[in-house]
Amino acid sequence: MADNEPTPAEETAARAREQAEQAALPYKWNQTIGDLDISFTIPAKFKGKDLAITIAKTSISAGIKGQPPIISGTLAHAVHVDDSTWTLTTAPGGNEKVVEIHLDKVNKMEWWPHVVTEAPKIDVTKIVPDNSKLSDLDGATRGMVEKMMFDQAQKEKGLPTSDEQKKLDILKKFQQQHPEMDFSNAKIS
């Protein structure tokens, strides 16, 4: 373990603190690599016309008209406004309604540490993507994500990334073709 890596106890404490910070937010949120969903509940008496929801490229404000917003601030990253939506549905039991906001990320290759910059962050390096969601990506994007995931896993194990392994394989092949050359001091960069 490297000197700067947290101990398992520190890691557990950090995860617990992160979960507590996220649970304290007045909304819930989750994300895939391509989009982000926010939800919060309001009393059942309110209708869509009672809501004040503004989604801009780099900011959001959502809540009940005449009351402080439930979420408001600068988005962590840009969204496609035209492809971002919100819905209002009745929660099971009928005592509350659920506001669901769907944000379409501009950068489909980036995990968000928080919805708005004013909120506590999560550790995006701990995100384990849902493999079924990888199938939603087109071939080239999926390949890139899988390569990034493989390379991250290799780095964590102290093993060469896919690009470093290719260079090693090329050097090995060249060594086999040229046994007369000394490669003992060869550095790969």
Explain what the structure shows.
- InterPro entries: CS_dom (IPR007052), HSP20-like_chaperone (IPR008978), NudC_fam (IPR037898).
- Required for nuclear movement. May interact between microtubules and nuclei and/or may be involved in the generation of force used to move nuclei during interphase.
- It is found in: Cytoplasm.
- Keywords: Cytoplasm.
- It is elongated, with a radius of gyration of 23 Å.
- The protein folds into 2 domains: 8-120, Immunoglobulin-like, CATH 2.60.40; 128-189, no CATH class.
- The strands form 2 sheets. A 4-stranded antiparallel sheet has the order 1-2-7-6, with no helix packed on it. The chain has a 3-stranded antiparallel sheet with strand order 3-4-5, with no helix packed on it.
- It is 29% helix and 26% strand.
- By secondary structure, the chain is of the alpha+beta class.
Distinctive features:
189 residues, alpha+beta, Immunoglobulin-like, 2 domains, 4-stranded antiparallel beta sheet, 3-stranded antiparallel beta sheet, 4 helices, 7 strands, 29% helix, elongated, CS_dom, NudC_fam, unfolded protein binding
Write the CATH architecture name of the largest domain. Answer: Sandwich
**DSSP summary: helix tally:** 4
Q: What is the overall silhouette?
A: elongated
Strand content: 25-35%
* Whole-number total of structural domains: 2
Based on CA atoms alone, the radius of gyration comes out at: 23 Å
The top-level CATH class of the largest domain is Mainly Beta
- Write the element-wise H/E pattern from the N-terminal end onward: HEEEEEEEHHH
Unreliable runs? none
CATH topology of the largest domain: Immunoglobulin-like
Provide the spatial order of strands within the biggest beta sheet.
1-2-7-6
First-residue to last-residue Cα separation:
25 Å
Mean model confidence by pLDDT: 86
Number of strands: 7
Describe the largest sheet.
4 strands, antiparallel
Helix content: 25-40%
SS class: alpha+beta
Domain CS: 22-116
Subcellular location: Cytoplasm
Protein name: Nuclear movement protein nudC
Main location: cytoplasm
